[in-house]
């Protein structure tokens, strides 16, 4: 039994308190796939803040601190500008806000591609600063040596093939991958290379369904689909997309709610009440007790509801 910090939701502040727990582990996730079959699919969502992690944790097996925070949190055009420290800051918050899920942190563009040694330095920094269990990196066969280097040194790795957003300048857009025979063969080959290198899970993003099914059958690692197939060993979505925070989302996103509309309505109601001076009302105000009256200047006592 180990100990982490769970936020106290009974207050308005994020006050950590020790909470005994038994967090899921990488071997437990790996163990879901037996003889090529995953009876219980792996549930994964993104999280970037402690409070979001709290709300998602009980329902997920894995939480991904994705570099998609570039667009979701920072309003950037792509994931390219994301820094290592951005990932560490948000990763640490998600670990603090969770106690059950395996937390995986994306390695940002430029932090791992140069060499296995560079990747190890960045990955070790992420795990030390956040307390996360694993890192995720993009790229297939070309990154296999790096994945093996990390795994052999005690760093669990999630791979990512198919549509790889960090390579958007090469890909030229976010269209589904695998429409040519050569590209389809490469995607499956990339997944196999990562699997053989020791990745315990592989994200398959934006690929044609038959390719996702073939890749899932070809590897021992857990495959996690996003715009891939329900036959993958698990699924991941960007939480804010799933909740309907944005007007436009990718085709593969299913909106389970419309949080944006609710926020708009709540803000509209709040603005109206402020402008008509109905907020704050009696329930939101602090009035002086009788013992406090002597401390209030006489000229103000009538305003406090006591003219004595």
How would you summarize this macromolecular structure in one to three sentences?
With 308 residues, this protein is α/β, with parallel strands linked by helices. Helix content is 36%, strand content 17%.
What topology emerges from the helices and strands here?
Layout: E1 2-7, E2 16-21, H1 26-30, E3 33-34, E4 37-38, E5 42-46, H2 50-57, E6 62-65, H3 69-72, H4 84-96, E7 102-106, H5 116-130, E8 134-136, H6 144-152, E9 157-162, H7 168-171, H8 181-197, E10 201-205, H9 209-218, E11 222-226, E12 234-237, H10 239-242, H11 259-275, H12 298-301
Parallel strand pairs: 5-6, 5-12, 6-7, 7-8, 8-9, 9-10, 10-11, 11-12
Antiparallel strand pairs: 1-2, 3-4
Helix pairs in contact: 2-4, 4-5, 5-6, 6-8, 8-9
> How many beta-strand segments?
12
List low-confidence stretches. none
Helices and strands, in order, run as: EEHEEEHEHHEHEHEHHEHEEHHH
**Content-based structural category:** alpha/beta
Give the amount of beta strand, in percent. 15-25%
Strand order of the largest sheet: 5-6-7-8-9-10-11-12
Can you give the mean pLDDT? Answer: 90
Radius of gyration: 24 Å
Oligomeric state of the chains in view:
single chain
Query: What percentage of residues falls in helices of 4 or more residues?
Result: 25-40%
Anisotropy-based shape:
elongated
- The total count of helices amounts to 12
The largest sheet, given as strand count, sense and whether it forms a barrel, is: 8 strands, parallel, barrel
Q: How far apart are the first and last residues' alpha carbons, in Å?
A: 61 Å
């Amino acid at each position: 039994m180990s100990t982490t910090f769970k936020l106290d939701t009974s207050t308005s502040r994020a006050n950590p308190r020790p909470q005994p727990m038994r967090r899921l582990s990488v071997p437990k996730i790996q163990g879901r796939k037996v003889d090529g079959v995953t009876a219980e699919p792996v549930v994964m969502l993104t999280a970037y803040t402690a409070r979001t992690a709290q709300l998602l944790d009980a329902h997920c097996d894995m939480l991904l601190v994705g570099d998609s925070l570039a667009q979701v949190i920072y309003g950037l055009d792509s994931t390219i500008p994301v820094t290592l420290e951005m990932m560490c800051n948000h990763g640490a918050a998600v670990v603090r806000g969770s106690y059950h899920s395996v937390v995986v942190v994306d390695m940002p563009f430029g932090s791992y591609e140069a060499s296995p040694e560079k990747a190890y330095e960045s990955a070790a920094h992420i795990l030390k600063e956040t307390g996360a269990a694993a890192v995720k990196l993009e790229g297939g066969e070309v990154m296999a040596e790096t994945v093996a280097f990390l795994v052999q040194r005690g760093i669990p790795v999630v791979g990512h093939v198919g549509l790889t957003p960090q390579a958007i300048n090469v890909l030229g857009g976010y269209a589904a991958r695998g429409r040519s025979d050569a590209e389809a063969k490469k995607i499956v080959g990339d997944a196999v290379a990562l699997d053989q290198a020791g990745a315990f899970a592989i994200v398959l993003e934006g690929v044609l369904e038959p390719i996702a099914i073939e890749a899932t059958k070809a590897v021992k690692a857990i495959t996690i689909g996003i715009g891939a197939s329900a036959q993958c060993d698990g699924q991941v979505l960007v939480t804010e997309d799933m909740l309907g925070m944005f007007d436009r989302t990718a085709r593969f996103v299913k909106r389970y709610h419309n949080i944006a509309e609710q926020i708009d309505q709540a803000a509209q109601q709040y603005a109206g009440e402020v402008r008509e001076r109905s907020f704050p009302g009696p329930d939101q105000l602090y009035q002086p007790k009788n013992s406090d009256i002597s401390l209030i200047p006489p000229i103000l006592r009538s305003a406090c509801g006591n003219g004595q």
